[in-house]
Amino acid sequence: MKPVIVAEKPSQAKAYADAFKVKKQEGFFDVQPCEAFPQGAYITWGIGHLVELRDPKSHNPKWTKWSLQTLPILPDEFQFQIAKGKAKQFGIIKKLIFEADTVINACDVDREGSNIFYSIFDYTRARNKTIKRLWINSLEVDEVRKGFMQLQDNRKDLLMYEEAKARQMSDWLVGMNGSRLYTLLIQQKGIREVFSIGRVQSPTVYLIYQRALEIERFVPESFFELEGTFKAEHGSYKGKAKGKMKLVEEAQEILNKHQIDGFLPGTVKQLKTEDKKILPPKLHALSTIQATANRKWKYSPAKVLSTMQTLYEKKLVSYPRTDTQFITPNEFSYLVNQVEAYQQLIQQPFQVASRNPSKRYVDSSKVQEHYAIIPTKKIPSEKVLAGLSREERNLYEEVLRTTLAMFHSDYLYKETTVTTDVNGLAFFSSGKTETDKGWKALFSNEKASSSAKEPTLPKLTLHEQVKSKVEIKEGQTTPPKPYTEGQLIAMMKTCGKFVEDAVDTEILKEVEGLGTEATRSGIIETIKRHGYIEVKRNIVSITEKGRVLCEAIEGNLLASPSMTAKWEAYLKKIGTGNGSSELFLGSIAKYLNQLIQDVPNQLNDKTFHMTTETFVSRKEVATCPTCKKGTILSRKNFYGCSGYKEGCKQTFPATFLKKRLSAKHIDDLCTKGRTDVIKGFVSKAGKSFNAKLTLINGQLKLDFN
């Protein structure tokens, strides 16, 4: 019998099919007999998650209505279903699997790939099949063929599935229970909103909220420094005395002590020049390329991930969802053999500094499921490069240049430090002189950041006499900066430093913070979609809704990365065979029971404020402007007339051009026919703008006057 190869999605299946001679059929490829498959094979595909967890009401009708009395939601057995619109493809996969002896999991080589495959396979109810695992990091033809010749057993795969399934179920339990619990309790306080709770998303929002509070509560403090401006034979330079003083009197006292008053001669007491170097950057993992692309081009982490996935499917880069920055000798071998060809792609030839692998980049012991993101063996033609979008081209070149930097020389510079003595008071200056651009030449088209520009020093000689002018300079402490979207990835990864408990900090360091390399960008998109944060010009800010959520969960484990860290550590144990899904989900159930017991009391004395989303607790908003008889009611996802059964069709959307419309906005439209200026509409082109809304013949219109 022909083995059945299950890919994660159509594009992946097509990449596998490109490695063989195939006949295209509906829902699968028929692989002709070859060395890897003497009898041929079938390649079929999922469409991402073909099989998904059912919603609560499908588990039990009593969970249809949101009610505090029906919590907790703890199914005796989790039930799954075929995702909407995907039944036909599932039927094709099921038929092929039932007719085969061997099934090959060829989904992405990560936990989610294992979850997608086994959720499909288990739902077919197939039995007594041999399951093999395709384990590759590149979709190039030769790598695909080699991978199918070296299939692995499914022992590790099954453990990854157990871990992924436990994570999926725990997230479902926390989300379904937490969201209903907090939404219903906050609605009792007069705020009509749905508050989504998540095991990873909630502490992530809380960390952003904490930064916002730090900025808002920051009180600037003045400080004083002593600065000298020195005029030497070949030019001027500046220097500072050590220390910052809180009072101007302290600074003046130092000047008095050294009898410094205005202009005095100074002496170059020390002059030291050192040769220094900066090594080429490490290879990219997903998080580092997300941070780099956000800094350079303001791309969101989700945009980077989707673009990298496209480049992977075009066989130009290796697997992007990787958390390592190392490769093995195998990858180094093909890179070094093609280094000149890669140089031609960016038209920047250079002398290779070394063709020997360095432990900084090549270390098999640091490579687990995947190696760092590097170019594949495939050298794209000019036509292929020209066909890439601007984002694809930028990211491909970023991977290419970072990989080439591994073969380039170090960046060399001279650092000069100067100590200038004025009446026994030392002033310190430093300057940098570039001597060899080295690997930085590969990135020379980029603008240097202002912080990277070091002051230059004039030519000086030891014991040289200089004219000096010493002044007291006043400065002010500055608040922490808000996060950029790219910095959120690093914040999630290194959140252990925000936790006081040393044990929790260590656990967070071990599990690499909140989320995983593959899921962090999705979490950021989720909290944006739920309206907890806004990103404008790449700056992240907490919304009023986000503040209400954080005020509600404050003091609870849901606000802390610590709980997620402990859960994540145990999930990893499941993935290595040292943990039990049953025990883990049992601990989640205990936690949720405690949460349901504690939160009502925690929220009793809390008051929440939202200027744009608050509403009177009754659902009636205003008299219907169309039929003049019914009442416009506030419903879950829209506002509608109570007279709809009598034929009135007047409705208002709850969200218009990505802006949530409050009950006050609808009341103004019904009573005055227009609103005041509403901020934050988003056009189809993705641009934010402000406008009034008017109601004309029952329809909403924008008014820019």
TrEMBL record:
<protein>
    <recommendedName>
        <fullName>DNA topoisomerase</fullName>
        <ecNumber>5.6.2.1</ecNumber>
    </recommendedName>
</protein>
<dbReference type="Pfam" id="PF01131">
    <property type="entry name" value="Topoisom_bac"/>
</dbReference>
<dbReference type="GO" id="GO:0006310">
    <property type="term" value="P:DNA recombination"/>
</dbReference>
<dbReference type="InterPro" id="IPR025589">
    <property type="entry name" value="Toprim_C_rpt"/>
</dbReference>
<dbReference type="Pfam" id="PF13342">
    <property type="entry name" value="Toprim_Crpt"/>
</dbReference>
<dbReference type="InterPro" id="IPR005738">
    <property type="entry name" value="TopoIII"/>
</dbReference>
<dbReference type="InterPro" id="IPR023405">
    <property type="entry name" value="Topo_IA_core_domain"/>
</dbReference>
<dbReference type="InterPro" id="IPR034144">
    <property type="entry name" value="TOPRIM_TopoIII"/>
</dbReference>
<comment type="similarity">
    <text>Belongs to the type IA topoisomerase family.</text>
</comment>
<dbReference type="GO" id="GO:0006281">
    <property type="term" value="P:DNA repair"/>
</dbReference>
<dbReference type="InterPro" id="IPR023406">
    <property type="entry name" value="Topo_IA_AS"/>
</dbReference>
<keyword id="KW-0460">Magnesium</keyword>
<keyword id="KW-0479">Metal-binding</keyword>
<dbReference type="GO" id="GO:0043597">
    <property type="term" value="C:cytoplasmic replication fork"/>
</dbReference>
<dbReference type="GO" id="GO:0006265">
    <property type="term" value="P:DNA topological change"/>
</dbReference>
<keyword id="KW-0413">Isomerase</keyword>
<dbReference type="InterPro" id="IPR003601">
    <property type="entry name" value="Topo_IA_2"/>
</dbReference>
<dbReference type="GO" id="GO:0003917">
    <property type="term" value="F:DNA topoisomerase type I (single strand cut, ATP-independent) activity"/>
</dbReference>
<feature type="domain" description="Topo IA-type catalytic">
    <location>
        <begin position="157"/>
        <end position="596"/>
    </location>
</feature>
<dbReference type="Pfam" id="PF01751">
    <property type="entry name" value="Toprim"/>
</dbReference>
<keyword id="KW-0799">Topoisomerase</keyword>
<dbReference type="GO" id="GO:0003677">
    <property type="term" value="F:DNA binding"/>
</dbReference>
<dbReference type="InterPro" id="IPR006171">
    <property type="entry name" value="TOPRIM_dom"/>
</dbReference>
<keyword id="KW-0238">DNA-binding</keyword>
<dbReference type="InterPro" id="IPR013497">
    <property type="entry name" value="Topo_IA_cen"/>
</dbReference>
<dbReference type="InterPro" id="IPR000380">
    <property type="entry name" value="Topo_IA"/>
</dbReference>
<dbReference type="InterPro" id="IPR013825">
    <property type="entry name" value="Topo_IA_cen_sub2"/>
</dbReference>
<dbReference type="InterPro" id="IPR013826">
    <property type="entry name" value="Topo_IA_cen_sub3"/>
</dbReference>
<dbReference type="InterPro" id="IPR003602">
    <property type="entry name" value="Topo_IA_DNA-bd_dom"/>
</dbReference>
<dbReference type="GO" id="GO:0046872">
    <property type="term" value="F:metal ion binding"/>
</dbReference>
<dbReference type="InterPro" id="IPR013824">
    <property type="entry name" value="Topo_IA_cen_sub1"/>
</dbReference>
